[in-house]
Each structure stands twice: as structure tokens, then as C-alpha cells.
Amino acid sequence: MEKDILIELKNVSKKYGDNYVIKDLNLFVRRNEFLTFLGPSGCGKTTTLNMIAGFETPDEGNIIFEDSNINIVPPHKRQINTVFQKYALFSHMNVYENVAFGLKIKKLPKKQIQEEVSKMLSLVDLKGYEKRSTDSLSGGQQQRVAIARALVNRPKLLLLDEPLGALDLKLRKEMQLELKNIQQKLGITFVFVTHDQEEALTMSDTIVVLNKGKIQQIGSPEDIYNEPKNRFVANFIGVSNILNGVMLSDYKVNFENKDFECVDKGFSKNENVDIVIRPEDIKIVAKEEGHLCGEVISAVFRGVHYEIKVEINDTTWIIHNTKHVKVGDTIGINILPDDIHIMRKADSNEEE
């Protein structure tokens, strides 16, 4: 195993009955990385997390942690801790006792326990809450206690299973930044599970997009958003206009009955392709100046921008723009070569 790789999953599969939840998964996580499993419900992300934690055992393949196979190592003997959506705090213990619990199990000296708990409560901004009952805390505060309890043991890997799911929107956004800040301060590897694309894009160094037990794409948030590998990824990450097209030659594509310059190459001549164009990359212009033009069928103000739907050649386009337009207007749209992303047509099994 390479020096900077902390954990590696090799050909890992898990099935319940005759159905595979995860099939032939290959993946590695680097030290000090914030990696996120992203996908819809039932895609296998929590099952993968549970196998890493030791709550589930792979039916096939191996999980390697620092060069050692940990397939049958029990959870309490792994240098891995988990924070769940339901924080599982001990309600009969106060904040201090919850955070100190793992250290007491290890029979560390009382003074050392006090020092470590104090450091962790300061890190999660709960200094002064030591004697508070966990039931008296808000959801965000309870989450911080759960994180402090997990981190005080200094695991090499922290697993987080949708820990922000129970929080309201404003608090969830605050905690996204706070979690990332904690991870960077401590230099601990985080593996995070979510179905929320914004969470994944905001927090992650690396995103693993899963669907039906298979990896669809691995990459940085920028790569996943700007260079989706297939229709599933393009649809799941953000809003996209996905169109049928024909690659005429390197750097030239045809869609909506018009030829466009693009930045893609390496396709066969006249190969059928999928075109992805993000709504925010489309420029609204006068109809006579547009590469394409069509009728506005809806315009909804979303706070930062208008979400505009335009009918062009029987295709409904979605545009995000700060310019106000009226329903019924005919407008032109322009698209730069950099904003046209070409994908190969998916094989029938590629997105399953």
C-alpha cells in the first residue's frame, strides 16, 4: 500500500440474500482526506461505511487498513470511530461524561482525561457546557458532543453517517463548514455519507458517486460538477440540460440542429453523444444574436437568480440568470465552447 493511503477496499462485495448491495467496489482513502460517499437512498453508501467500521463483513474482497486486512477485526479494535445521524448520546450522563466515556474505558489517568476532554470541547465550541444534560442541548450542540466523543479517542479514521440530516437548513450549512474546519485542524481522515449534493460539494476533497452498489465517478467536487462521466452523475449533481448530439469531429458537435465549437476530442466521427450544459453557463441575449432562440415558458425568482425555462425545438432548457425575462418572450441564448461538456452514450449497464 502506498504511504499516503490509509485504507483500501479491494473488490469488496456485500449482498443480502441474492441481491448485491455493493458489487466489486475498489477504492482507497488517503491520510488526512475528507472523502464523501454521495448517492440516493439504497445505493450502498451506508453499507460500505458499515463494512469499514466493522459492523458488517464483506462477502467478497478485502478491506486493508495500514497494510493489514481488517475484514474480521471487531469494531472496538479498529482505529476507527463512527458518528451517526442519531447521535446515540448517553442521556444519563452530562456532556463531560459523554465525551470522557471512551477515555475512561481505556483507564487513562484522570488528569489526562480532563485535559483531553477540555481540548475537544474547546474545538467543538462547547467550553462551559461540561455539566449540562445532553437532553437540554439543541440538535447542533448534541451533534458537537457526538463528534467530540468520537474524536477524543484520536482515531485515525472518522466515519460520519449523514450526521447533519436531522438539523435545520441554516444550522446544517453552518455545521458543514465547522466539520471541514475541525477535520483540517486535527488532520484526521474523514469519510462522510450523504445524499445531499451541496453538502458533498461544500465539504469534500474527494467525492465518490454511488448508484445501485457501483461507483459511477470518483473525483474532486470541481471534476464531479464540471465533468460528469454519465447521465446519472450529471442529473444527480446539480441541475443540467442533457441533450442528444452528434460529435462531427474533434472540437465540433451538433445538437439542436446546429453546429457548435467545443473543447472535447477523441470521439469517433459522427458518434452519437450526450451533451451536458449547466444552467448558469447559458447567456441570455437578444433573439437575433443567439446561437439558439426560443420562448420563455416560466421564470421563477430563486433569491440569487431567476430559474428560467425556455422551449427550443421541442426541448425545455433550464437557465439560471440574474436577468429578468417575461413568460412569452422570445429570447436568444449563447453557449461558449468551454461550457459544452460531451459524454459518451452510456452502455446499458453503466449506470446500474
Automatic annotation (TrEMBL):
Enzyme class: translocase
The keyword Plastid is assigned to this record: no
EC code(s) of this entry: 7.6.2.11
Keyword Lyase tagged: no
GO MF, any single term: ABC-type putrescine transporter activity
Regions that span the bilayer: none
Catalytic activity: ATP + H2O + polyamine-[polyamine-binding protein]Side 1 = ADP + phosphate + polyamineSide 2 + [polyamine-binding protein]Side 1
Domain of life: Bacteria
NCBIfam families: MMSYN1_0197, potA
Role of this protein: Part of the ABC transporter complex PotABCD involved in spermidine/putrescine import. Responsible for energy coupling to the transport system.
Assembly and binders: The complex is composed of two ATP-binding proteins (PotA), two transmembrane proteins (PotB and PotC) and a solute-binding protein (PotD).
Name of the protein described by the UniProt record: Spermidine/putrescine import ATP-binding protein PotA
Organism field: Clostridium felsineum
